Amino acid sequence: MAKVYIVIYTTYSHIYKMALEVQKGLEASGAEAKIYQVPETLSEEVLAKMYAPPKPNVPIITAAELEEADGFIFGFGTRFGQMPAQFKAFLDSTGGLWAKGGLAGKFAGIFTSTASQHGGQETTIFTTIPYLAHHGIIYVPLGYANPNLFDVSAVNGGSPYGAGCIAGGDGSRQPSESELAVAKTQGENFGKLVKTYVAGKQQ
Ligand SMILES: Cc1cc2nc3c(=O)[nH]c(=O)nc-3n(C[C@H](O)[C@H](O)[C@H](O)COP(=O)(O)O)c2cc1C
Fold this sequence. Notes:
This protein is of the alpha/beta class. It has helices spanning 14-28, 44-49, 85-92, 95-99, 121-126, 129-135, 177-202, and strands at 3-9, 32-37, 71-77, 107-114, 138-139, 164-166. The protein contains seven helices and six strands, in the order E-H-E-H-E-H-H-E-H-H-E-E-H. Helix 1 (14-28) packs across helix 7. Residues 10-15, 77-81, 113-116, 119-120, 167, 171 line the site of flavin mononucleotide (FMN).
């Protein structure tokens, strides 16, 4: 069975809510899907000052665990148009895996969240691709796989690079039905691809 790890960093839970839909999509494709979070690097004191709610109840991943999966879907909100330091710190801890090509040939998709509509939905994912390239991980874009990506009738996150939600400047906006549906599509399409690959390897 194709095994996909959804690896997230979330401060205000938007990414976790999106991850649950990505997981549903992966499971609909027949893949095994488990959600992990990367270690937090901020102190409880700083998180309290940021009004951050408790972390989701999912295990904290270690770099070594990445080797177990056939593919990953990474999810994180933007920080100045790029991945948060927490996720960068986690990826920077994968040097040992990089040295032995431990992740080469695996697949990865990415989804994100931004406060504003033009705060980095595309750049956050795009600037993560070098990490994948250095590992030899195959980046799987979303494309326009879900027509909701064309919907301009309301505020709407997501791009061909990956699903996305708009959290609002104060974080009060929650992922919309449209954005959640795109997240599910990303999981389902990614799962189908990884399943095909795993089935081929087993032949
Ligand atoms: C230090 C910092 C930098 C941020 N930079 C951006 C940004 O460049 N563009 C933007 O739209 N939102 C920005 N945000 C908002 C976050 O992306 C938003 O809180 C996040 O996507 C919500 O996801 P979460 O609930 O999963 O943490 C920033 C937030 C913080 C704390």
